[in-house]
Input
Amino acid sequence: MMKAAIDPVTLATPFFILSVILEIVLARMGKADARYETKDTAVSLGMGLISSVAGLLTAGAVFAATLWVYEHRLFTIPMTAIWAWVAIFLLEDLTYYVFHRVSHERRFWWAAHVNHHSSQHYNLSTALRQTWTGGVAGTWALWLPLAFLGFPPAMIAIQKGVSLVYQYWIHTEAIKKTPRWFEAVFNTPSHHRVHHARNAIYLDRNYAGILIVWDRMFGTFQPELDAEPCRYGLVKNVATFNILRVVFHEWIGIVQDVVRNPRHALGYIFGPPGWSHDGSRETSTMIKARVGAEPAKAAAEDAREAA
Amino acid sequence: MNEAFFVQLALSAAAVGVLVAIAAWAKIAKPAGPLDDYKARGLFEYEFPGRKLDAVWVASDGAGALAKSGGLALVICQVGDGFAARQIPWAQAISASFKNGKLCVDLADIAAPRATLSLPSWPPKNLTKDLAA
Ligand SMILES: [Zn+2]
Ligand SMILES: [Zn+2]
Output
């Protein structure tokens, strides 16, 4: 398999395993805030395991495409320069923001990403609840411009891995808030709890990978509010632990909707999740409007919290 | 795909098994507790805000509830230590199969195929009486 010489995810796997054990044991001893349900944990970890295999099936094609684009690059960026690593850190993280936002706002890509949000739990095992269908969804193409700019494919792969490993540790309720300056700049457990919550005010917020500054810049930031404890999962929670249903439900839902309403196929495929031609369902924008969780209100709460 | 890959995969699968066993041993699920009428109504209000409930039936083991709301049946079923909610046409709930004290409601959703509720009887014999109760 064609892989970068340094794969941060492989290197971090022992750390993933030990930290899950640590979180469970600390919670059991009453020393940390964490909830684990056996079947939920099994589904999360099983999805993580099979996702790594599923990723390999498309890895060759993705790598070949990246290599081809790199051969037609604009510049040649040296992997040994510090400035190049600073640049790819920022550009990769911005790419992740775009990927993540598209993955929530358009149903075709949501169908692949919904998996990660299908648990009603928020613990370290939830971080490993990864999609199997990301390769099919094609969002990996969003990283091709980095190769076109001239970043070596190995460098892009390493930075993607670094981002994934960074995002692992924030999937916990055990850490409440980090120092203020850190919350201001970086994605943290608190910010990402909001992202996993189904409360109306928290829907479609905090798309950040490593830096939360993108959400602040593009108006999708929402701080965690004491008055609004996070309820995790989906607007319509999955009512089964059947891993195949969890993984494929949104894809099957799209096919069913298109077969039933072929004239509205585009809306059902590329509209926002919850879109329907007859208004019988709700998108997150509609839910926010209904309960009055408008951006303006969120901004006011934000200001109050900051004060 | 080489031997090292399969060794790595087998080790990861074993690790998953160990972690799930530790999670089961720890017994640190959410203390959801069985539903009673009060809790069920709270949950219906959260899941279907503003919807008027004509009648509520709570499963005898507290693992779910069903409510009539106009032409709709609102269904809550337990999933692990949490709950999931769906709405279906009331007629669909009325015609759901009832055997040995278990009502099996087809939710017609890939992500929520069915809800099973323990109830003394179904369908409700006299809805107007139930509504008055
Ligand atoms: Zn997400
Ligand atoms: Zn996450």
Remarks:
- Chain A is about 60% helix and 0% strand.
- Residues 70 and 147 of chain A are 5 Å apart (CA to CA).
- Chain A touches chain B through 45 residues (CB under 8 Å).
